[in-house]
Design goal:
Blueprint lengths: L3 E9 L5 H8 L5 E4 L6 E9 L2 E7 L11 H12 L4 E7 L3 H12 L5 E6 L1 H6 L2 E3 L1 H8 L3 E3 L8 H13 L16 H19 E3 L7 H9 L5 H18 L2 H22 L3 H18 L2 H16 L2 H15 L7 H6 L4 H7 L6 H10 L9 H11 L2 H29 L20 H20 L1 H14 L4 H13 L3 H17 L2 H13 L6 H9 L5 H12 L11 H8 L2 H13 L4 H11 L2 H31 L1
Parallel strand pairs: 1-4, 1-5, 5-6, 6-8
Antiparallel strand pairs: 2-3, 3-4, 7-9
Helix pairs in contact: 3-7, 5-7, 9-12, 9-18, 10-11, 11-19, 11-20, 11-25, 12-19, 15-28, 16-18, 17-18, 17-26, 17-27, 20-25, 21-22, 23-24, 24-25, 25-26, 27-29, 28-29
Length: 636
């Protein structure tokens, strides 16, 4: 029997529960990608229902179909140019009037359309009752009450999708009185039309008690306790990130060491053995090692976002941010930067004022992304011990944010002068997070991290191995081999082997690159190996760890008694240089992928040049100060 394909464009304003509705409708795996030509995330799902193959494309949340932001352009282009069968407009039943403003624009397209009145259960709890039949008569489109969270009305909605697909729909008659209305007339008539519908279709009974959201806000949004509560939650998240992540890390490190040992035994002493063991396995496994920490961090951020708490923190911090020249809306892209700089740069589009947006883009890099976490975990674990690790991690992230605020103030006074934009932001209601939604968010981020490890981090590891092993110095090696044969004690043989390894490393392509840039980094306490690690980190911050693993692991016979990467780092790098290194990593320019998105969002390559100069000089100056202070303090 032939299966019919129904393609649905899922459209709605932000925070109406589109993603949760997709999860409730289908048990299929969500496919995540990007819309063609832009970095806006594209989510699709396919599933079967009653002999119909249904494909849903989740379009970005948007308040209108204008071309003001990239999200609006993506939605507008898709609806006007792509092929699809039905528009499924998801609206928030607790805020129907505002949501219907977008609906009026969708009606003007005269496509087959269904309204999903989501969160209908929450609306009724708030004594808000919608007459969906009357609403349907007004709009000439079917309106179905659903609750994505409780999966109410889902099958009724699916049946309506099939019914709408199978039948013709009565066209919507435009409500404009003039044939060529002005823009102001269009807006006024839209608003009056929506106001009339809401007044006639929605009845609200007076509430005599505070809602759940109001009760929670009285604590979390408290004038004095709100900020300490937020800081405590972030501190708890970083404690969990390190302490809980430490358990699987030990297992992963043990497995990777065994793999290196076994590969050397199987392949023997050859260039292929070195490539696979010291290059590929050492480089890639050093990145995978920190996957548990990444998962925990993304899980915590996803939970805080999905409950509606992060939006409130924006409001809470608006006064503080304004003192440093930032806008309250800057908080969302800034806190997103703790996960990844790419979506953080994209999130800055919510700032309509160009100077506010550019200032936010320049400061996002101070918020340490997930890719920097492995570097922090490595150095914190090596130099500060497990008992203090969580506190030190929290201090690193908070210090980066504080430095970012001061940098914002300097840039606001010197470069981005101008009047502030007033702070207006929607506060979503508190909701219990959807397990499936959280699971998908965390898994997608973890897979993206692993994809990096399996693609260009693998390529970078091979390149770094090659640059650290070539060119070969056969005469020098022959000379050392003769000396090794002449000595009798194992200690002397080991010493000569290490001298040969060091000579080859320093005279390799990588060594020459490091030696060339070493004078720039020497005042910060960095040797040439640390300099090379920072330079490779321009491609991706995760490569810093794999570079250090290769450079500080070469020439060692790895077995169950060998020093781990943490011990190698601790034995080869002074503590004051390690602290300085952390500070430099905290501030300097993000990876290539993030930089490309920055260019697009900022509006030109010149801004990337400014960003590189600004972050590099800030990182060097801060590291220089910290290095010299640490050297004095640690010598006491």
């Amino acid at each position: 029997m032939k299966t019919n394909m129904i393609k649905i464009a899922l459209v709605g304003q932000p925070n109406v529960g589109k993603s949760m509705l997709i999860n409730s409708i289908s048990n299929s795996k969500l496919k995540v990608g990007n819309f063609s030509g832009v970095t806006v995330e594209k989510k699709e799902v396919k599933f079967k229902y009653k002999n119909y193959q249904i494909q849903i494309v989740d379009l970005p949340g948007t308040y209108s179909l204008t071309n003001y932001s990239i999200e609006e352009r993506v939605v507008n282009n898709f609806l006007s140019k792509e092929k699809y069968d039905i528009i499924l407009n998801v609206v928030d039943s607790t805020n129907l009037q505002r949501n219907l403003l977008l609906t009026t624009e969708l009606l003007a397209l005269n496509k087959k359309m269904i309204l999903a009145l989501n969160m209908s259960d929450e609306a009724e709890k708030e004594n808000t009752f919608i007459d969906e039949k009357k609403l349907s008569n007004y709009l000439k489109k079917p309106c179905i009450k659903v609750s994505a969270a409780k999966k109410h009305g889902i099958y009724k909605l699916l049946d309506e999708i099939i019914n709408t697909y199978s039948n013709t729909q009565q066209p919507f008659v435009q409500f404009f009185s003039n044939t060529n209305p002005t823009q102001d007339e269009v807006l006024n008539q839209k608003f009056n039309f929506v106001k009339t519908i809401t007044k006639d279709c929605v009845s609200i009974k007076e509430q005599k008690y505070r809602t759940k959201t109001e009760k929670i806000d009285s604590i979390l949004m408290h004038k004095f306790f709100g900020l300490p509560i937020f800081l405590f939650l972030m501190w708890g998240l970083f404690q969990l990130t390190f302490n809980l992540g430490e358990i699987p890390m030990q297992f992963i490190e043990s497995v990777s060491n065994d793999l290196i040992t076994q590969s050397k035994i199987i392949l023997g002493d050859s260039w292929l053995s070195s490539l696979i063991s010291d290059g590929i396995i050492a480089g890639v496994s050093s990145v995978i090692l920190f996957l548990p920490n990444i998962v925990i961090l993304f899980l915590g951020i996803a939970l805080l976002e999905s409950t509606g708490y992060m939006s409130r923190v924006s409001f809470l911090l608006d006064g503080i941010l304004h003192k440093f020249g930032l806008h309250g809306k800057s908080f969302i892209p800034l806190v997103t930067g703790f996960g990844c700089s790419v979506p953080a740069y994209m999130a800055a589009r919510t700032l309509k004022n160009e100077k506010d947006r550019l200032l936010t883009l320049f400061i996002i890099g101070f918020m340490s992304c997930g890719a920097r976490l492995p570097i922090y975990v490595l150095f914190v674990g090596a130099f500060f011990g497990e008992e203090n690790a969580g506190n030190i991690l929290f201090l690193i992230y908070i210090s980066g944010a504080i430095l970012g605020l001061f940098a914002a103030k300097i840039l606001r006074v010197v470069v981005f002068k101008g009047a502030d934009e007033p702070f207006v932001m929607e506060m979503p209601k508190y909701r219990l997070p959807s397990t499936k939604l959280i699971y998908n968010a965390v898994v997608n981020n973890a897979l993206m991290y692993l994809k990096k490890a399996g693609t260009y981090i693998l390529a970078a590891s091979v390149l770094i191995w090659f640059m650290s092993n070539y060119p070969k110095h056969y005469e020098v090696e022959k000379s050392f081999e003769q000396k090794i044969e002449l000595v009798t004690s194992d200690e002397d043989k080991t010493k000569l082997k290490n001298e040969l390894t060091l000579y080859n490393l320093e005279n390799s392509y990588l060594g020459k690159l490091g030696k060339f840039s070493e004078p720039f980094f020497a005042p910060l306490g960095f040797d040439w190996k640390m300099a090379v690690a920072l330079e490779t980190g321009l491609a991706a911050k995760e490569i810093v760890v794999s570079t250090l693993a290769i450079l500080y692991g070469l020439g060692e016979n790895i077995d169950e008694n060998s020093a781990t990467l943490l011990e190698n780092i601790k034995n080869n790098i002074p503590k004051e240089a390690a602290i300085s290194f952390i500070v430099f990593v905290m501030i300097y320019i993000p990876c290539i992928a993030a930089s490309m998105v920055f260019v697009r969002e900022a509006g030109g390559w010149k801004y990337l040049g400014y960003l590189f100069i600004f972050t590099t000089s800030s990182a060097w100056l801060a590291s220089f100060i910290v290095y010299n202070i640490s050297k004095v303090v640690l010598s006491l």
